[in-house]
Every structure is written in structure tokens, then in C-alpha cells.
Write a structure and sequence with these properties.
4-stranded antiparallel sheet; about 475 residues; 8 strands; globular; two-stranded parallel ribbon
């Protein structure tokens, strides 16, 4: 069945408190108070409560999280034998000595090993993540190349910060040196793009360019406790002149819960990237007590619903839009998109679990298209699972593992929220799994995920096949992962 609309769905977006064994994390209703609050750590894509929940669900054998964890452990980047290959200068862009694959492969290895440590407690993975991050902070000084260097700074900046946040208080991690690298090599590039747009008109670059820069500035701001950087992204998201601000990225709201994603007039791949990036920005802000998910009557949800329906092959409206291109004094022109591009319904990216779980599980809102496409993509993989080139590494991934959560109660969904962690304290130890009952046990079975409208078939011996490729075996009322 679909997730049902909460009777309080029109209330201001809130969140749940993190820190105890509770599954959800809280977000403030008073944005000004949140802006002055101490930063919560870990507090980028994953909070302490999130990490505890993942560990508990994997330990309990919860179906979706167990399947997601299997994708993590099967990834070659998640192995403790991974060795870093740092470079002093990273180049991205044709005509330059491109070596940026070294960076994104090592980032994904650091993130995946850190995540694996938090879930299993195996210190070899923590040591590998720390070694990778330390090697780069001791070596990297500059990002260079064509205009694509802005993409490198944005994409790899937010990902690098997330990997570091997971081990920020681990013994041996050179946090101060890593923060210095992020402030000197990544933050200035992304900040400059949001200010000057590479000398071009503010609308010259598509939405993704702004969103990568915004994700980097926000993530580095949180990692480095830099309030000005965080505030800048929040303001830009709400009111910025560039294509990454929410009303430029999602310019038209239609009836029926859909809102046009501007890059649908470009192509499907970039539209999916943009939705994933905006969701990442919303999630990182949420974990610091700032609600961008619910901004402007949950405009992002309507844009995500639009892209999900369109990507599944559904018909969507499109209002022609024209943007100015070029650079002042050099070249000026206009580009018009008049219809949504063709799609490949088989195309998938690991972006949907995070969005579906926020709106349907935390908030109890209806998101039928997002829910269906999230179920189709489950269990989500990560870097290296979606192609060998850079596009396969644009997302950290593993959303089925990291974002599957139990449904919040009506009281939790409408409670006055607070930042994810009031003290901002960081534990040097991995998550300590709570009991299955405290963390929901098998609560991510199909009926409890919001993904229960997933296409299924049932064969002999009660074997149920899920559209995403996950095999489950129904026995005695519980869902277990089939060994075959």
C-alpha cells in the first residue's frame, strides 16, 4: 500500500531527536535558533542515531538493511586492503592531465570502509578509512583543469567531508589537517563558483553545477564548524539567483503533487543527478536542525515526484522556459527547453531511498512515485556499482542500508524539533547496536518500509522475488534473506 498522508501533513516539517536509541532525528521549528546552535557531529548524511540504527538492523537481519549491507561488503572499495593513491594536484577537464579518478575512487573507499566499521565494529576498516584520508590531507594542495574543476570541487568536496565526518574523532585521524585541506583546496573553488559562475551569466550553467557547489560549501561548513558557509547555502537554496536555488531548479508547480524539474528539459541522467544532489543538501541541513525538505510547501518533494514519475515512463507536463547563456562582453545567447526529454525507464541511480524515507517515514506524507522508484532501485549500491566512469561515482549511495527507517509516530512527526545532537559531542567508537526491539528489529520488512507497492511474484516454497533483485524467504511471519 502507499504511505498514507498524516493528518498533520500540513504542519511545518519537523524531525526527531537523535542521540539515544531512538530511530529518528529531530529538527528545529525555530530556524534562527538552529542557526545559532552548536553543530551536531556526526552530522552530515548520517547522525549517531542513524549509524546505531543501521548496525542494529543489520545485526537483527532486517531484510532491506541486510540486503543493502551485502551490496556494501561486495563492493571492491569497501575492503580494508584498499591503499590510497594521493596526488598533489587533481585535474578534471579535457585537455588537462586528468587524474581525478584517483580522488573519487579513494573517497568512496574511505566512505565505504568507515561505514562498514560503524556497522560491524571491525577496526581494520576504520584504520583503512583514516589512512586514506590522512594520505590525501598530507598531499593534496590544489584542484585544477577546465571549468570541470568546479564539478570536481563540488562533488568530491561534499563526499570527502562525509567520509571524514564518520571518523572525525577516531584515533590517528588528522582532523585539523584534513579540515585545512578542505578549506584551502575545495571550499574556495565551490564558493567562487556560487559568487561568479566562472565569469558567466548566473543562468549559464545548469542546475547541477550550482547544486554540486552548494553541497560542497554546506558539507565543508558543517565539517569545519563554519557557520557562515552553512548560512550561505541555506540562503542560496531559498533565494539564490542561480539555477540551484529551489525556485529556479523547480520553476513550475502543477496540481496533483508534481512540480517541474528544470533539467527534465535537458536529459534524464542530469535530472537524476540534480534530484540526488538537492536531496543530499536537504539531508545534511536537516541533520543540523535546518528544514529545507519542507521549504516552500515541500517544493522539493513535488519536484522529486515529477522526476520519479517521468523516469518510470509516466507522462508529465512541461512549461517552456528560456535561460540566458554566455558571459558578459564575450558571448550572449538564449536557450529554450520546450518539453521533457525522452527517458529510459531502466536507468537507475542510488538517490531515492533517502528521499522516500524522509517524506514517508519521518513525515508520514504520500510520495507514490518516489516510493515506487525507490523500491525498484533497492537495494541501492554505491560508487563503482553504476558504471566505471565518473558518473558512477557522483553519489555515495547505499541508501537502502543507510536511510531505511521505521515510520515515525504522529507525535514524533509533529513534535517541536531540536538539532540532531545538542552537545555536538563525537564518539570515537563505532555504533553500539541496540536490541532489535529498540531499533525496530525486522521493521524494514516490506510492509513497514513504505515500499509495499513494489511489484512482487511468489513462487514455490514461499519464495518472493522483489523487483530490485532482492530475494526474500517468508517463514513463520518473518522476512529473511534467501541464501540463494
Amino acid at each position: 500500500m502507499r504511505a498514507q498522508i498524516s493528518r498533520r501533513s500540513l504542519l511545518k516539517i519537523a524531525g526527531t531527536a537523535a542521540g539515544a536509541a531512538a530511530v529518528t532525528a529531530a529538527v528545529p521549528t525555530a530556524q534562527a535558533s538552529a542557526a545559532r546552535a552548536a553543530f551536531a557531529h556526526p552530522g552530515l548524511l548520517h547522525t549517531r542515531a542513524d549509524l546505531d540504527r543501521m548496525a542494529a538492523k543489520v545485526k537483527a537481519g532486517a531484510a532491506l538493511c541486510t540486503a543493502g549491507f551485502a551490496r556494501l561488503t561486495a563492493n571492491r572499495h569497501a575492503q580494508s586492503s584498499w591503499a590510497a593513491r594521493p596526488a598533489a594536484t587533481v585535474y578534471r577537464g579535457s585537455g588537462t592531465p586528468e587524474n581525478y579518478a584517483l580522488l573519487y575512487n579513494d573517497i568512496h573507499a574511505a566512505y565505504q570502509n568507515a561505514l562498514r566499521w560503524h556497522i560491524t565494529g571491525e577496526t581494520a576498516h576504520a584504520d583503512t578509512a583514516v589512512a586514506i584520508l590522512n594520505a590525501w590531507s598530507a598531499t593534496l594542495t590544489r584542484l585544477d583543469g577546465t571549468a570541470d574543476r568546479f564539478l570536481a570541487a563540488g562533488l568530491y568536496g561534499y563526499q570527502f567531508a562525509n567520509a571524514a565526518e564518520l571518523v572525525r574523532d577516531r584515533d590517528g585521524f588528522e582532523l585539523a589537517r584534513f579540515q585545512k585541506m578542505m578549506r584551502s583546496a575545495f571550499l574556495p573553488v565551490s564558493s567562487d563558483f556560487l559568487t561568479h559562475h566562472n565569469g558567466a551569466y548566473v543562468t549559464n550553467y545548469w542546475t547541477n553545477w550550482d547544486l554540486t557547489a552548494m553541497a560542497c560549501v554546506l558539507a565543508v561548513g558543517i565539517l569545519c564548524d563554519d557557520r557562515a558557509s552553512v548560512d550561505r547555502v541555506v540562503s542560496y537554496f531559498r533565494h539564490g539567483a542561480g539555477m540551484g536555488s529551489i525556485r529556479n531548479a523547480i520553476p513550475v508547480v502543477y496540481s496533483g503533487g508534481l512540480a517541474e524539474w528544470v533539467e527534465a528539459g535537458r536529459d534524464q541522467g542530469h535530472a537524476l543527478l540534480g534530484v540526488g544532489l538537492m536531496g543530499t543538501i536537504c539531508e545534511m541541513a536537516w541533520n543540523q536542525g535546518i528544514d529545507l525538505y519542507g521549504h516552500d510547501d515541500s517544493r522539493f518533494l513535488k519536484g522529486a515526484e515529477y522526476v520519479a514519475k517521468w523516469s518510470l515512463g509516466g507522462s508529465v507536463p512541461y512549461t517552456s522556459n528560456t535561460r540566458k547563456k554566455g558571459a558578459p562582453g564575450i558571448w550572449s545567447g538564449m536557450e529554450t527547453a520546450s518539453r521533457a526529454a525522452a527517458v529510459d525507464p531502466a536507468m537507475t541511480r542510488p538517490i531515492w531511498a533517502m528521499i522516500a524515507n524522509h517524506y514517508t517515514r519521518r513525515r508520514g506524507l504520500d510520495a507514490p512515485h518516489v516510493t515506487r522508484i525507490a523500491a525498484k532501485a533497492a537495494p541501492e549500491g554505491g560508487g563503482g556499482d553504476y558504471g566505471p566512469n565518473s558518473g558512477g561515482y557522483d553519489r555515495l549511495g547505499f541508501g537502502t542500508l543507510t536511510f531505511t527507517r521505521d515510520r515515525a509516530t504522529a507525535a514524533e512527526a509533529s513534535a517541536s524539533p531540536t538539532p540532531a545532537s545538542g552537545s555536538g559531542a563525537v564518539s570515537a567508537r563505532p555504533s553500539s547496536p541496540a536490541s532489535p526491539s529498540a531499533q525496530g528489529g525486522h521493521g524494514d520488512d516490506l510492509a513497514a518500509t513504505g515500499f509495499s507497492d513494489l511489484p512482487l511474484w511468489t513462487g514455490a516454497a514461499g519464495v518472493t522475488a522483489v523487483a530490485g533483485g532482492l530475494l526474500l524467504l517468508r517463514r513463520r511471519g518473518r522476512t529473511q534473506r534467501d541464501s540463494g
